[in-house]
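Suppose you are handed only these lines of text.
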Amino acid sequence: MAKIRQSVPLKVGAAQVDAEIISFFGLESGLEHIAIKFVRKSADVTSPIIRIHSECLTGDIFHSSRCDCGEQLEESLSLLDNAGGILLYLRQEGRGIGLYNKLDAYALQDSGLNTYEANVRLGFAEDQRQFSEAAEMLKALDIDRVQLITNNPVKREQLEANGIIVEKTIPTSAHTKPGNLAYLKAKQAQGKHSLNLNEDPETEITHFID
Ligand SMILES: Nc1nc2c(ncn2[C@@H]2O[C@H](COP(=O)(O)OP(=O)(O)OP(=O)(O)O)[C@@H](O)[C@H]2O)c(=O)[nH]1
Ligand SMILES: [Zn+2]
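From them, the structure of the protein bound to zinc ion can be written out as follows.
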């Protein structure tokens, strides 16, 4: 069972909003997952908005052309800034295969494999991630009911299988750009992500709260 190890206040983002960064004891993987809690008086405390974000150094930090992770992170942060809620930042680089292996997978994708096939060619599962630790982190934060920002049905299924009620999912926009279309199409077709790839990029970041 995970427990809170440390919680310290900080201000985040361009608007320097009040938040807390939280570390945990007892995560089985030994990975240094963290939570960022956005402190908003208006936040829904019975069913907070949660983003479970898997680390992507190339996308989150460098806004790489190959994926949409950085844009999804920014979109989630702007929603959490406004409405309150919690970001769980999971250190699951490359869907759990690590950065160097992800770069090997990119090289294979440049020779024609899609993002899932490349993982398999390297000897990994299409997706190595488990989200049971995310459920553990939520329980440590006294949360058993959430509104989840995601397009990935597996995140919802795994949270529910681990005792968290997902009241609704909030999709992110489809962040297409030159270089990531094949990746997004594979996520939609093979990963069953709920992505609307015909979306007009001009309408991004406007539809995701109802
Ligand atoms: N192995 C591998 N990992 C990738 C690739 N592109 C992005 N990733 C990783 O995929 C993870 C993000 O997964 P996604 O499938 O984009 O999205 P998701 O987190 O499942 O779903 P959402 O909640 O909708 O964002 C991050 O850990 C990225 O580092 C790739 O081509 N190969
Ligand atoms: Zn990425």
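What can we learn from it? The chain has one domain: 3-92+129-193. Residues 69-83 form the longest helix (15 residues).
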